[in-house]
Amino acid sequence: MHRQSRASCGWAIFLMLILTGQSAVAATLLSKAQQDVIAAQIAELRSNEEREMASSWSDAKKVAEFICRPLALQELRKWKKEADRVFLGTDDPSTLEMTSSQTLTGSGQVRVGSDWDDFTFTCRLDPDTGKALSFEVSH
Q1: What are the distances in angstroms from CA 37 to CA 16, 56, 129?
Q2: b/e string for 59-94 if b means 16 or more Cβ within 10 A?
Q3: Which domain holds residue 80?
Q4: pTM of the model
Q5: pLDDT digits (tens, 9 = 90+) for 19-29
Q6: How many domains is the chain built from?
Q7: How many CB atoms lie within 10 A of CB 114?
Q8: Does pLDDT of 17 surpass 70?
Q9: Residue 120 phi/psi, 5° resolution?
Q10: 18: helix, coil or strand?
């Protein structure tokens, strides 16, 4: 029985290592180009505190903030000409979902004057360049 317990324990450790390896692979969907764009944007932040905070964000939040948001404001101005500020996602991680290195979806808010309007979006990404290709808004 003792030999069987060790064998079972060995298999459990083996399976845990395999599963851990798989989740480590799935943990980041970012391409090398996307990682480089994000790293460069984080490096440009003014303070160490800002850089540390941005570095701790999820990949989806980093993509939203540094890759999709500039295009988002441009596209939202087509919908609301006076739009001057946009937020993608919130502190709740479920408000942004990166399903691949090519797609980020989520919810956001755009400021028009003193009002904030909610929207959902899909941001299409080019993993080869690390840039946003399109930003589509759903109301």
Answers
A1: 33, 16, 9
A2: bbbbbbbbbbbebbeebbeeebeebeebbbbeeeee
A3: 29-138
A4: 0.78
A5: 434 333 345 78
A6: 1
A7: 5
A8: no
A9: -115, 160
A10: helix
